[in-house]
Amino acid sequence: MAIIGSGISGLAAAHGLLRAGYRVDLYSDRTANEWLTTSRPTGTAARFDLALSYERELGLNFWDDAAPKGEGVFLTFCPTLHNPLIRLVGRFRAPFQAVDVRLQSSRWINEFETRGGNVVIEQVTVDRLGDIAATHDLTIVATGRADLCRIFDRDESRSVYDKPQRNLAMVTVVGGPSRIDGLPLLPVKFDFLGTDGEIFFVPYHHKDAGPCWNILIEAKPGSRMDRFAGVTDGNVAVQRMKEVVAALFPWDEPFVRDVQLADPLGWLIGAVTPAVRRPAARLATGAVVAALGDTAISYDPIAAQGANSGGKQARHLVSQIVARGDGAFDADWITSTFDDFFATHARDACRFSNLLLEPITAPAKELLIAQYGSDGEPGNDSAQQRIADAFVENFNDPRLLTPAFTDMAISRQVIASHAEGRWLWNGVRGRASIARDQIKAKLRRRDAVQ
Ligand SMILES: Cc1cc2nc3c(=O)[nH]c(=O)nc-3n(C[C@H](O)[C@H](O)[C@H](O)COP(=O)(O)OP(=O)(O)OC[C@H]3O[C@@H](n4cnc5c(N)ncnc54)[C@H](O)[C@@H]3O)c2cc1C
């Protein structure tokens, strides 16, 4: 078996195949040491329990004791500027983890060699891919969104956008608080501003500094958040991030006031056109190769699905390779294997990501209203808390709640299932509490001015 690419997806598949007894050649454009010393991270890559469970199964969970255990999501929903209308504090059933992908790839490459895998350091070209495919039963291309992904045609029927929906800026920072004031859990803090975009503060494990924060800005093009074009220095990116927080989310300004860039390469700016590609490509030589991870599906990171989907796809692909036995890994097999993965996992991950890129739907708003009052306290078994927890769990498994975000009947069923059948009462209670808290906030602001 040949795998091209040493990101999360390629390495998960490489380890999975090795463990299943295959001979595996991993082609990487960089060494383990280069991942650590001269590479940029490809993303935050926070992974939730379903994806992490495969890494545990493969014995690749080296950071469980060191990395912060992310316990939930703390969402502040602002339909307009300086209007934090709805707050949600939901708990995951099991923690998430975000480890610097540079550290992860470096360690996983070394571990792959220790376990008997063969690593070839080379920038694989399309011509070279033909040679590799000719000498392997199956060649899997997991080179992310880099040039090689263009050999896989875009699947128009599954791709919704033809351009990026957000301009992205990501910085890894040290020097911030270790917790978020007033919360009983360590969450991803997620500020949502309907007019401008979103900002995420993710508990993170940096390759050198250890526990810290990774901050991702998802700016609607042309909005007040969209201030990172042309930035070439990570310190400038951190400064711009602080300006965005101070201007648009002033209540979070103290949180970022003292933070600094964790390392000169620990930041990114860019944009992703969300796309699903055809999973099989035929080369000029006639050989067929398979796409994995970002090469197969590129997600905007708004719903944190890319690395999660890559890991789930790797698990699915490896299990299907094993099940195939001595059968051929031809284009039909590659396509039906991917179609199965898409139907059972990725379709809802894509829909969930795309829904977060769009204005909030009425059924999703209904869920947010119904959970109003959640606080994430461990003993809280209220209907509001259970709805908030269900909302949050959808990041781990987008099959759970994504259908409810576009269908009012399903949304109400979900609310009723957590609220002893009383979806209507829950909606009335939620709306009344939001109105009460809005009035209180207005009075506080008026008192502060007087
Ligand atoms: C700002 C940002 C934040 C994100 N946050 C999250 C998140 O919180 N959760 C989540 O699940 N996802 C997130 N993602 C997405 C996630 O980072 C990616 O989905 C994931 O890293 C993709 O992994 P991959 O292995 O498919 O590809 P990559 O990580 O891109 O790895 C591919 C590797 O292949 C190698 N390569 C490339 N070309 C060649 C070649 N020609 N020959 C040999 N080797 C080659 C390179 O070393 C490259 O790094 C985020 C993305 C971004 C941009």
Structure description:
A hairpin with a 5-residue loop joins strand 14 and strand 15. The longest helix is centred in the last third of the chain and has 27 residues, at 331-357. Helices cover 39% and strands 19% of the residues. The protein has three domains: 1-63 and 101-161 and 275-359, FAD/NAD(P)-binding domain (3-Layer(bba) Sandwich), CATH 3.50.50.60; 67-98 and 165-271, 2-Layer Sandwich (D-Amino Acid Oxidase, Chain A, domain 2); 362-449, no CATH class. The protein is globular, with a radius of gyration of 22 Å. The N and C termini lie far apart (72 Å). It is α/β, with parallel strands linked by helices. Strands 3, 4, 7, 8, 9, 10, 11 and 12 form an eight-stranded mixed sheet that branches. A six-stranded mixed sheet has the order 5-2-1-6-15-14, with helices on both faces. It contains 13 helices and 16 strands. The chain has helices spanning 8-19, 32-37, 49-57, 101-114, 126-134, 234-248, 253-256, 306-324, 331-357, 362-370, 383-396, 408-418, 423-449; strands at 2-4, 25-28, 70-78, 86-96, 118-121, 139-141, 167-174, 187-193, 197-206, 210-219, 260-261, 267-270, 275-276, 280-282, 288-291, 297-298. Flavin-adenine dinucleotide binds at residues 4-10, 27-30, 42-47, 101, 123-124, 142-144, 146, 148, 168, 170, 216, 268, 293-294, 301, 304-308, 310.
Identify the notable features of this structure and list them briefly.
450 residues; alpha/beta; FAD/NAD(P)-binding domain; D-Amino Acid Oxidase, Chain A, domain 2; 3 domains; eight-stranded mixed β-sheet; 13 helices; binds flavin-adenine dinucleotide
